[in-house]
Amino acid sequence: MDEDGFTRGEKSARDKACYLIVQLPWLLLHLPRLFFSALVRLVWGEAAARFAWQKIFTPANFLTSARFVLLGKAIALFFMGASLATQTHWLFFALATDFFDGPMARLNGEVTELGTYLDHSGDWGVTAWVIFLSIWYGTLELPFLLAALGAILLLFAINIAKFLKFRDPLVPLIRNVGAFAAEELQTDFWGRVQFVSLAVALFGGLFISVSGEAGFLFAGFMRGVGDWARTITYGALALSVFLGGYNTQEALDYSEFKAKKFRDKLRE
Question: CA-to-CA distance for 131 and 193, rounded, in angstroms?
Fold first, then answer.
């Protein structure tokens, strides 16, 4: 993926900010990496173990996978009748992993296609569940939520159509999928801003709703924000919808020339 200056700058700044935070977990996550790679070696041999070590069992992929575990816990709490504040805590920590898995992968030269798909799936899985909770508990007005959801679904549909146009039928599907992730699904600066603004809006609605509940971890923060909380929440939601339109326009840029270039590179 050819990155613009904004995207390179954002990733560089985030990587530097996270360096000291992510390196110790990166070392600790080598324990499960060693264990699972050894299992692969026993069953499928050295070549498969090397591939698993480099492409599957990376520390960043383990961290991204934790997002699914935390999301699953939050969903289970919903069906168990837990308070919205408790559910919000687990969802917030699930989303927080998104800030660190990218820097962990980039700083250690371990960006993988699987990691890209896990990252996007985890992000939007958390987002989809928070949208559901926002509707279920009425934390944000429905028209605004539907506008944000519509922008997301449109972007998904365009990327699926883009993949179907780009894919090379002469190349195995798994290679097509991996190459498409590396080339087209790496989040750029404006995609990151759109996602962050949507997250601020959705969690803002939850935070406002539970700020008075006993045991809410961020009650002090919400008292500090005060009356600005609703303004920030709906301002972020409006920005997300606007950038959804912009990113949709960017995603629609898939000429036959770009598709041919993608297929030629895939066959190299």
Answer: 18
